[in-house]
Amino acid sequence: MENIYLDYNATTPVDPEVVEAMLPYLKGGFGNASSTHMFGREAKVALEKSREMIASVINCQNEELYFTSGGTESDNLAVLGVADKYRTKKNHIIVGSAEHHAVLEPAEHLHHHLDFELDLLPANIDGLHSADELKNLVTDKTCLVSIMHANNETGVVQDIKALAEAVHSKNALFHTDAVQATGKIKVDVKDFDVDLLSLTAHKIYGPKGIGALYVKAGIRMSPLFFGGSHEKKRRPGTENVAGAVGLAKALEVALRRQNDDYKHHQELSEYFIGKVFATIPDVQLNGSREHRLPHTMNISFRGIEGESILLGLDLEGIAVSSGSACTSGATEPSHVLMAMGVEKLMGQGAIRFSMGRWSTKEQLDYVLKALPKVVNRLREISPVYNK
Ligand SMILES: *Cc1c(COP(=O)(O)O)cnc(C)c1O
Fold first, then answer.
1. Per residue in 304-339, pLDDT tens?
2. For 111, which of 20, 118, 272, 315 could close a Cys bridge (C-beta 3.0–4.6 Å)?
């Protein structure tokens, strides 16, 4: 039996080039970047070179980039850090209804425990948000709006520039979770005109446990952690130097391969979706077909549960996700599909196939053989599916 990984949106293997770049900082160059001696200085140089590389990719100043432990921390720091600074004057925040839990939950925390007003910006059936609708929600009490760039479950890509402009026209700040988009499509904080932006390494062939938050110069933000002067006191804690080197290298490789990877994903995606629709009845692709990262394919199979399909495919050696990896195990349909207004029965039968750099047509052919068998078997015993 083959082992086929189609869950690249949950995490990716580390690119061999990234491993090579990191190794010296796990071996000899292990110094603490805050130490003044030569071991520390060597680590500090590597840390700052990495910062420079990442800053150049997203088009910001080195001073505007803060290392964190990943996407979850960057999102929490953006939402809670900005809210804390502005709360006496502005206690309203808006987040997208289909955000990652790393944005939704801190926003709900502000609402339930810290007297913030919270609005969720609706999405349409394609998973897209309207800039006009957003503009109408922003008031003079709104301190922050957070809308993700590319959705982890559907791959749907928002028009961040238009959304940020709508928010700025009403004098609020704009954060975007660009964890899934960075490295895969153009992410430029100046062009988008965003105030804060989150990214992480392990979704783009870098190591787990390292990410970054861009905070535009002049934006005020409280820290979540206390205990040192690392990252200008905004994120104290001994720097993860090897991780930072890995994140920078992962972005460098992603940039170099961006067009090739994108084309590869697009070809495989067209092929896979076409075949699934041709061989299995009662299926639907969730989210915009046009405004989508092509490697992410969220497909619903009517009348059966996504979790059962996942288990059936797992027995065939195929790794996929039913909705979001973070909510696997729950039988409720994903909040992202519900936010888009996907019919509940379809939402329950959703599977996310997410391909990557090393996915091949042969692997997809193997999946295309196993998938109809799994779906048919489950439909035969389904109490709700009728042909
Ligand atoms: C994975 C992911 C996160 C969380 O990032 P971690 O580095 O795993 O903490 C946040 N947002 C999105 C869109 C993601 O896909």
1. 999 999 999 999 999 999 964 444 555 789 999 999
2. 118
- Pocket of ligand 1 contains residue 175 by CB under 6 Å: no
Q: For residue 190, how many other CB atoms are within 10 A of its CB?
A: 10
Taking the CA of residue 202 as reference, the ligand 1 atom at the shortest distance is 7
Q: Would you call 326 a catalytic residue per the annotation?
A: yes
Tokens describing residue 86: 């502005």
Q: How far is the CA of 198 from the centre of ligand 1 (A)?
A: 9
Q: By the 8 A CB rule, do 219 and 209 touch? A: no
d(CA 78, CA 149): 15
Check pLDDT > 80 for residue 1: no
Is 248 in contact with 50 (CB distance < 8 Å)? yes
CB atoms closer than 10 angstroms to residue 265: 23
Q: Which of 19, 285, 326, 338 is catalytic?
A: 326
- State the Cα–Cα distance between residues 79 and 252, nearest whole angstrom: 28
Residue 76 CB less than 6 A away from ligand 1: no
Average the pLDDT over 31-56 and give the result: 97
Is the beta carbon of 181 within 6 A of some atom in ligand 1? no
Residue (of 308, 292, 350, 294) closest to 150 by Cα position: 292
